[in-house]
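User: Structure tokens for both sequences below?

Assistant:
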Amino acid sequence: MPAYRILGACNPKMALEAIGMEPRVGAMLPCNVILREVEGGVEVSAIDPVASMQAIDNSALHIVAAQVRDLLAKTVAAI
């Protein structure tokens, strides 16, 4: 198997905020970033937090998910 890493990338403050809004959301938090070896380099992947939160009807939670998506996008772009 080519090189493969799973990194824990939860932002504790934002995770606590989301759990405070919806206690069951802990099972859905987008806390993993994947690094995997591909031909020509390394691929970085993360789930879209906005998409993962669509199953929960809570507009405040969707705002936090959008903030997390922006942070993840900036981090991946900086790599």
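Moving on to the next sequence.
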Amino acid sequence: MLLFSGLTYDMKSLIVKDSPNRIQIIDGLRGLSILLMVAYHFGYDLVIFVGVSPQLIHNPVLDVLQSFFAGLFILMSGISCRFSKSNLKRGLLMLPVAAAITLVTWSIGFPVWFGIIHFLGISAILFSIVSPAIDKISRPVQFIIYIVLFLCSIQFTGRRYDVSWLWWLGFRPEGWSSADYFPLIPWFFIYLLGTLVGTYITENRLPRRFYAQRVPFFAAIGRNTMLIYVLHQPVLYVITLMIKGIINAIQ
């Protein structure tokens, strides 16, 4: 069994089994965020492979929404850490998947060097190491630290640096690129914020409605985010090639 985002899924089928003990709203929010991520990647593929205007995905509104929903997905993954029996094992099991994604995307000329799966794997490992220490810090102080560090660290995004080996941390060198990019800075602080929220959820401190809320469709999607992430780009790639072929045939 492989653990992903704090919940178990069958390694053979990559399909998570539902359980009456699962909190559907967590699965649902993660499902919504992965669907929006898929939609964004579809737009990206249309721009790259079909020649649609870059304005489809590069515009002020979508830039903000893309960051928001990516942050939501990372937050929910951090929350789910509190449901995991072993974040170290979960993180280590994600790394081969991340390596396979890098190999495949590199082979087609659009390498993903540190995408969302790379980030989640490393973050789970790091959290397993630092959690004993940070759990000794009062929760209000943790909240302030994570927010301040995130707000301070976002100033580093978008810049280029004269380094060649710190891209995983957030310091991108000139000429370096990744088709999907979620460095530890600033996103790890959102992940840690999620682990903080998760402590309140696991202690049943939220309103009862939070635990009883049902969102079947999005929850079903959210239970299988790993499967969807691994498969969605190959499927989208085939779809965009078909669209390109149809357009070329019409022209």
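User: Anything stand out in the second?

Assistant: The CA atoms of residues 115 and 181 lie 5 Å apart.
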